[in-house]
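Here we describe the complex-level prediction in full. Unlike the single-chain runs in Section 2.1, the four entities below were treated as one system.
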Amino acid sequence: MTADRTPGAEEPPRVDLTTQEGLIGETEEGGQQLLPRPQTAPGELARERGSVLRLPEDTPAGDPSDIDLEAPDDETMIINFGPQHPSTHGVLRLMMELDGETVLRTKPVIGYLHTGMEKTGEELTYQQGATNVTRMDYLSPLTNELVFSMAAEALLGIEIPPRAVWIRMLLAEMQRVASHLMWLATNGMDLGSTTMMIFGFREREMVLGFFEKTTGVRMNHNFIRPGGTAADLPDGWEDDVLVIIDTIDARLEDYDQLLTGQPIFRERTEGVGALTAEEALALSATGPILRSTGIAWDLRRTMPYLKYDELDFDVIVGTYGDNFDRYAIRFNEVRESIKIIRQVLDRMPAGDYRVQDKKVTPPPRARIDESMEALIHHFKIFTEGFKVPEGEVYTAIESPRGEIACYMVSDGSAKPYRMHIRGPSFVNMQSLPVMLRGGLVADAIATTSSVDPVMGESDR
Amino acid sequence: MGLEDLQHNFLTGRLEDLVKWSRRNSVWPVTFGLACCAIEMMAVGTADYDISRFGMEVFRASPRQADLMIVAGRVSQKMAPVLRQVYDQMMEPKWVISMGVCASTGGMFNNYAIVQGVDQIVPVDVYAPGCPPSPETLLHTILTLHEKIRTGEITQRRSAAAARSRQIPGWTPERPDDVRVATPR
Amino acid sequence: MTPATVSPVPGGVSTGQDVVFASVDRYHETVSAHKTDGFAMLADLTAVDYLVHPGRTLPDGVVPERFEVVANLLSLSAARRLRVRVQVPENAAVIASLWDLYPGAEAMEREVFDMFGIRFTGHPDLTRILMPEDWEGYPLRKDYGIGRVPVQFKESPGPR
Amino acid sequence: MDQYLPIVVLLVLGFLFAALSIVASALLAPRKRPTTAKLAPYECGIVPDREPPQRFPVRFYLVAMIFIIFDIEIVFLYPWAVIFRSLRTFGLIEVVVFAVIVFVSFLYLVSNGALDWGPAKSLRPALSDERRTTQSTIARVGPEAGPPTGRAA
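The structure predicted for the assembly as a whole is:
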């Protein structure tokens, strides 16, 4: 299986898929699954029960007034909150042990969308790398491209022109607005408000329209590349952006009234899925989950990149660390992003949109016909790609879900030697057992949706 | 005796049309969103591109109540048996749309982790190109499926002979033996 | 910067972040020393297989091995990052688990085990996380082919 | 005889509808041999390997019993509803007394916890009673604040 196979080397049995009995597949994942209690190691048992802070083995998980964790095995039920489920936001499989409706312990089983992107990343040149990375977090593709490009530029040691920096910030914030709108839509849908789904997608279509106008496609843009951006903003982009952010700003009031006004929504989110600050830190949770516990950690503010230190915006911090706080944080972050976009609108500098270093960015199409040198550069960049000096770098930025980072090692060739993306959803999802413990199955849906996991970036 | 034993003559012509018309106009997809295509599939379901104009009002979560499986996204090796299980549990008559190049041919991820084309696991009716296919493309795919239902056979949707005749002679599709779908028992 | 008791080799600064090289047996001490030193969160833990690229620049006290486990610590109060790089030999690819210091490391270490085959002692549930359970081989190793199915119209099995 | 005609018609229609749907599905359904996968219970796409648990917690049955109480109550209301106009106030008082008796049994059930399915330990932290809005429980950290001094950082 490892070597490349020539076609038709050995005749695989051509199974006719339509008329026979149905292929019984192997969905058994053995050790990765939630095993009955006697077969689970004590450390793992404590982990699944959500007692994260390493208590000595004998103390019962959590405080004694907690749920009856010692319910006999035949009374409890292990169910699959499985890969194909309307409210798991993709192919997450949560295995839960239930005592009636109360969740005793949980174990996320992931990997159902593993695409081998880090292996593919080692096969593509830096020029092509953004196309692979952009398909990881499919709710904010531009954020992946940004982190990949910034890592490549850090290794190259080049400075991108100011206009490229501001274009990147504009697109990253528009992407945050679109991603949070998408989250509001699916979170509303999960908690029963299909109107929010319609609202959320209607606004998101406007932002996607702007992306289509700027980058050419609605998703998976490959627009932010090492060395700047692929093209300049279309002319007349200011009033497009202005129309979008004014409409969204005005409509946020309706969403607030629609969701916060609903007693059902409040009942299912207030106090549900609570997480304390120590647990969030211990589990390396980042983004709205960490901020909901009261820690004001937003990379745009604390470790600023691009030109975020010159912008005035607030970091939103919650108090209880429950679902409602995470909803309030994301809701207000849309307003903060709109505030940032307004500042970017009137401070966007003119000039080049990509660095003029001929070794890194291809020359404009028109000059290829006139100058032989431009043709050579164009040819070299697109066939062989540009060489990056040897070294390793870890750049991290704030994606709508948390800290997304790219650890890149280069061996001096035109392809990254190792390209690892630290997915915020991969890490945030590990705090699910802590948040789901003791809640109802319905709370599990609300909490999974409030963690906003994107399986593309967690399974990579 | 069942619909499939119906003789094709002028007496049963109208009945077939009626059955096909009713099936065509109420195809309910099962939510099988995997990756980026799923976001576009959801966008098709909402107000801007509204598929409920074509009778696909609601995305059924359980395969028992669905007629169409839109494989929206890349199918990993771990997901292949799950996809086959959900397909088997769907009620007859059922159709499959392979949405996006990753589902149709493995797309840009020609590596160990992705099943190179979902037609190695489930019989596919319509392939939607694009990465991700824009909602208009998906709507066009759905209309193609409706056309296929309207003109196709009532139940002998894909007899084995038809599937084989479509293949290019001399080229047998390479089916990696590690697609974790065991032969039927 | 590093407490005197533990003697990892400082790796200087790479793009604005401090790097520290620890040995396999001092790895756990180094990380716990840094944890008390203010690094409250483990941002990321990953590994690199240097089979095909042995000649990388390493400070003199460090012997290059095939695998390298990279732990990324983050100090929220000082807004600083620190990378602890540990050389792991190929034949004894075993290293201590950070699970008792940072419970969040559990999933990351399972992924490193799944992708590279590096075992972590003291890990509660060292099973695969991304690949199916009965998958043989560790995909992200350099000697593991990409598993490309040759495209029908291009007979040459070369790079894309 | 004419009094019973509607009842007879109703019975015949009911029977016809049931029979028709069974016969039609037997006649028109495609392939009759369901595959083993189709017979297997649906577990979100996972091939079930453990047999589903037999014993269910008692709370599920309590809810069923509560339903039966009110179901019987409605059954008794039907005949009453047909002739309640001629019963005048006596009928009204009678049905109110009946309803109260049934309601008392419901109150007893609720009092010893048949309906509170909430988690044994309420994980809801001490919520202040005022209504939370998207602005009430969040804090804004402006650019002037130094590095995060969150409680636990």
